[in-house]
Amino acid sequence: MELLTTVSQLEASLARARQEGLSVGLVPTMGALHKGHASLVERCVRENDVTVVSVFVNPTQFNDKKDLQSYPRDLDADCRLLQSHGATYVFAPSVEEMYPEPDTRQFSYPPVDTVMEGAFRPGHFNGVCQIVSKLFYAVKPDRAYFGEKDFQQIAVIRQMVQALGIPVRLCPCPIVRESDGLALSSRNALLSESERKLAVNISRILFFSQAYSANHTVRQTLAFVEDSLNALEGLEVQYFQIVDGRSLQPVADWQQTDDIVGCITVFCGSRPVRLIDNIRYR
Ligand code: PAF
Description:
- The chain is of the alpha/beta class and 282 residues long.
- It has helices spanning 7-19, 35-47, 65-70, 75-84, 95-98, 117-120, 124-139, 151-164, 193-212, 218-230, and strands at 2-4, 24-29, 50-55, 89-91, 143-147, 169-173, 235-244, 260-268, 273-280.
- The protein folds into 2 domains: 2-173, 3-Layer(aba) Sandwich (Rossmann fold), CATH 3.40.50; 186-275, Pantoate-beta-alanine ligase, C-terminal domain (Pantoate--beta-alanine Ligase, Chain: A,domain 2), CATH 3.30.1300.
- The strands form 2 sheets. It has a 6-stranded parallel beta sheet with strand order 1-4-3-2-5-6, sandwiched between helices. The protein has a 3-stranded antiparallel beta sheet with strand order 7-8-9, with helices on one face.
- α7 (124-139) packs across α8 (151-164) and α9 runs antiparallel to α10 (218-230).
- The site of pantoate has 10 residues, from β2 and α7.
């Protein structure tokens, strides 16, 4: 495995691979890697000759400076994990390398980028599109792998790829969970022991709501999830929406479409740590 830090190193290494006719897969990450990322890398290694994993905490997608500062970083540990899972290249550039000058491009894909995370984190998806498009242009991957925990992110990137005509196949990968159900996230590292115990209620109540939804309306299911979580001291739901899995617009009843997902963001603890998760209803 090789660690690369500049776009020109990356392009030179991949040009050699392309000359040999090798396929290239990309796993974009912000580091602080866990078993969820490992599952993306494993799949990428299985499906491609060359696996590039980018590790870059992208400042333009953080609308909250404190969140950016506290984002966990450990490149040595990330490299050990990536080496053990068979990555070919780790691309870990500096902020100056990726943004030699401010990126003034504006990406806008309503309605998928204006709801949920888009509404609560203004500019977030614009920053995601800025960095992901730069990575796609530099790596020119045949396939790119994203975790379904960031369900809306995949929908927005799908729109961007279509709009810009980028020839990459997007490969969404299922959420990986701890044995008790908590969705794996780099932010889990920020939870204290008691917050970690509290956080498990998010997936517990989401799973329970799947059964609940069988004989309750969408509106009742929304209220059930929100009220159950908000009743627990230390948890506060920022939003919970039950949406069409492609348009991400709220659905009014279960018959509306056969692709229905519940997306949630919850603040956990006193800091607080912002956790997201989602569950498929149909
Ligand atoms: O999902 C993430 O970790 C980030 O949003 C991504 C796709 C690596 C872009 O910075």
